[in-house]
Amino acid sequence: MTLIVREFRGGDAEGVSGVVRAALPYMGANTPEVIAFNAANAPAGQRHRLYVAELDGRVVGCARTGLFHDSGAPGQSYVNVNVHPAERRRGVGATLLAAGEEYVAGLGATAVYVWALDDDGSVAFGERRGYRAGSSSAFQRLDLTAGLPARQPLPEGVQLRTAADFTADPRPLYEADAESIEDEPNDVPTDAPPYESWLANEWSRPELDRSLTTAVLVDGVVAALCTAHTDGGTRYYSAGTGTRRAYRGRGLAKLAKNDSLHRARAAGYTEAFTGNDLGNGPMLAVNKWFGYVPCATERRMVRELGR
């Protein structure tokens, strides 16, 4: 058995996609196009690096690592390791984690965060290496063939639009998204990206489906947004649902998500996935109302480097 860990090359996108989709089938599209896009388009300040693990010439694992450049807290970094389920307990994850930790330590990071599935071994794997558990997040699945809540009459002054209607000027969508990003529960406080960065890294994503992304307008202002990602097959992913602060408490996030899900079902998608921090009570309640069912839980874990 020969295990090699090296940096990502363009020809690795198919193999890395297979690993991530096998390890986390409920998290994001992660098609080869998405993997290649992420590797090529990460913001410069993130210092993003993708490591690939080869076992006897086969891609069996990967580690995405870098800095939380959009956090006001300095020295925060991440190392997110995925190993194909059929190749676990062969030293792949430990080798990838060590490579990622060495890389971010060289960038001056003082803390490293990882995600670990709440399964029979992942959290214990982190604890043995000095990580302590933090917040939890639930992945949830919705069977789109089983029905959805009926569409409700729109309140006076409220309109529904898709992101495709904003192709000429997406800034109103950015402004709504930015407030949601800043208010989302997170172990690492996150600032909204500058508009140009949002255009390059969110609006231009290959998995973004503008025809399924719904904006709720109140008196002409984008007040809520449900961003839809798809895999080009049967799976739809909620990449974010949020409401601007001045418009919260009116059920607008429900309106946005219900419209987006109805559009997805009409387009032939059969499964919808989402994820929520377990401390995000409002969105957990919204997704329960839609009929989402938990399918996995992740724990955020952290270790201070140099200890």
Can you describe this structure?
By secondary structure, the chain is an alpha+beta fold. It folds into 2 domains: 107 residues, Aminopeptidase; 154 residues, Gcn5-related N-acetyltransferase (GNAT) (Aminopeptidase, 3-Layer(aba) Sandwich). It has 8 helices and 12 strands. A 12-stranded mixed β-sheet has the order 1-2-3-4-5-12-6-11-10-9-8-7, sandwiched between helices. α1 crosses α2. It is globular, with a radius of gyration of 20 Å. The two termini are 32 Å apart.
Can you give me a brief rundown of this structure?
The protein is α+β, with helices and mostly antiparallel strands. It is built from eight helices and twelve strands.
Task: Spell out the key features of this protein.
307 residues, alpha+beta, Aminopeptidase, 2 domains, 12-stranded mixed β-sheet, 29% helix
Reconstruct the topology from this structure.
Blueprint: E1 3-7, H1 13-23, H2 32-41, E2 49-55, E3 58-67, E4 76-83, H3 92-106, E5 111-117, H4 122-128, E6 132-143, E7 158-162, H5 171-183, H6 195-203, E8 214-218, E9 221-230, E10 235-243, H7 252-266, E11 271-277, H8 281-290, E12 293-304
Parallel strand pairs: 4-5, 10-11
Antiparallel strand pairs: 1-2, 2-3, 3-4, 5-12, 6-11, 6-12, 7-8, 8-9, 9-10
Helix pairs in contact: 1-2
